[in-house]
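User: quick one, sequence for these tokens?
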């Protein structure tokens, strides 16, 4: 009996030592700095501006972490918000080290999918609006930060009056499904009405009613303003097919949209925006930066580009204003 007890005690001691050894190993692993990372990217739709933001992000991360130290899982939601949810839920299940959400629907999906994995947004106009944060202070907190593509809306309203000085009525065309677009047109409308210009909002729900709503806007307006709106961006040439024959000029919120249907824009460089987002990712993963304290980053005013669409300006008989450069040809 004593021999049996002795054997049992010996086994228990060995198990206890093994457990201690295992615990010590886990603690050692936890204390080691990670040098290999997996980053998930959810891009809302294929579009030149969003493509460039993703391209800039990937370049910055590779430069900061070393290309051999990072694996990317880049997925496109094809313009469907439901696809964003599917993609980010998959990334969360895979336990990626960080999620980059390109455009508002991707950010909202990631925000709802995880409270622990760091999330960086890009090509998002206003984070307070996008995430339903009242009295937004510039820092989201929690596990979210990123970069904004918002250009000065008061200056965009000024563009309408400078490029279309005889316009008495301005239509504001946007997709009602995009909260950031509503925010932009509201602000531009306030600025224009302060100048004594009559404004009317024309909201389409999706591509099914875009053409009909665009025609209503063209029939009403002397000029049209369109914000940085994903659905507009993906259908800019369709909008142009209505407004250009009607001789209604469009001021656009960014260069990609302007290339499809606008006469002029003040626009940020989306590659640079994505690159800054990538630098933020490196700071989090490599340097241990606290995302809960990271403010949303904006493009400095001196880096905003003032551009015009030569083809549409010529066809509408509009002379380019001083200080604007010709919009580069689409790649």
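Assistant:
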């Amino acid at each position: 009996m004593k021999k049996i007890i002795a054997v049992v005690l010996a086994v228990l001691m060995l198990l206890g030592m093994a457990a201690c050894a295992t615990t010590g190993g886990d603690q050692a692993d936890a204390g080691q700095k990670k040098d290999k990372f997996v980053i998930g990217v959810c891009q809302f739709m294929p579009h030149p501006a969003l493509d460039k933001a993703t391209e800039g992000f990937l370049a910055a991360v590779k430069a900061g972490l070393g290309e051999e130290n990072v694996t990317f899982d880049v997925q496109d939601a094809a313009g469907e918000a439901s696809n964003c949810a599917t993609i980010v839920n998959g990334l969360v299940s895979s336990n990626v080290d960080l999620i980059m959400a390109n455009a508002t629907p991707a950010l909202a999906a990631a925000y709802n999918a995880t409270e622990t994995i760091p999330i960086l947004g890009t090509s998002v106009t206003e984070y307070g609006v996008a995430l339903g944060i009242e009295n937004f202070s510039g820092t989201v907190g929690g596990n979210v930060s990123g970069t904004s593509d918002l250009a000065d809306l008061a200056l965009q309203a000024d563009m309408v009056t400078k490029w279309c000085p005889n316009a008495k009525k301005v239509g504001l065309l946007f997709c009602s499904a995009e909260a950031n677009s509503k925010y932009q047109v509201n602000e531009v409308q306030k600025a224009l009405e302060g100048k004594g210009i009559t404004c009317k909002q024309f909201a389409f729900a999706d591509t099914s009613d875009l053409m009909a709503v665009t025609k209503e806007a063209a029939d009403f307006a002397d000029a049209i303003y369109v914000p940085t709106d994903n659905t507009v961006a993906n259908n800019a040439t369709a909008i142009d097919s209505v407004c250009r024959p009607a001789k209604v000029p469009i001021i656009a919120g960014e260069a990609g949209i302007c290339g499809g249907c606008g006469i002029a824009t003040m626009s940020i460089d989306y590659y640079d925006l994505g690159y800054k987002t990538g630098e933020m990712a490196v700071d989090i993963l490599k340097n241990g930066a606290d995302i809960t304290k990271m403010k949303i980053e904006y493009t400095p005013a001196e880096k905003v580009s003032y551009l015009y669409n030569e083809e549409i300006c010529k066809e509408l008989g509009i002379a380019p204003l001083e200080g604007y450069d010709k919009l580069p040809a689409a790649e």
